[in-house]
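Sequence and structure are no longer studied apart. To make this concrete, we show below a single chain and its fold as C-alpha cells.
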Amino acid sequence: MKFSYRLAYYLGGLLLGTVFVVYFLSAKAESRNVSFCYFPNCRVLQDLRSKPLQISDSAKVVLSEKWVTIEDVKKCMEFGDVDFSISNKPYNRGKIYFIKGKNLKGEPIKVSMINYADKVILNNIKKE
C-alpha cells in the first residue's frame, strides 16, 4: 500500500476519533454542569460564586445608596477582572480579592470580597 493511502487512512481515523471524543466528553460535561476554568481569573471568580455570599455593614450602606445593586455585584463576580497585584492577601483569617467591573449604567466599580473556606463576604464597593 502506498504511503499516501496509509496517511489518508490514518488522518481519517484520527479525525473520526477526535470528533467522537469531543462530542461525548462535552455532552458528559454539560450533563454534570462541569465547567473548565484554566485561567486564574476564571478560577477565582468561580470559587467566589460557589460559596454563600454575605454582605458586610459597610457594603449594605453602599447598596442602600442605589447607585449599585446586588445584581451589579453578581455580574462582577461573573464577568469582572480580579486585580491580582493587590488581591490574594491574608485578611481576617481569609483572603481578600478586589474585582473590577461595571454596574448597569456602565460606570466602573471595584468590589472587595473576603474569601473564607465556607463563605464569601462582600466587604466594600467603590466607584472607580
About this structure: Strands lie at 53-55, 81-82, 89-91, 94-102, 108-115, 120-127. The first strand starts at residue 53 and ends at 55. Helices lie at 3-31, 40-49, 57-64, 70-79. The radius of gyration is 22 Å.
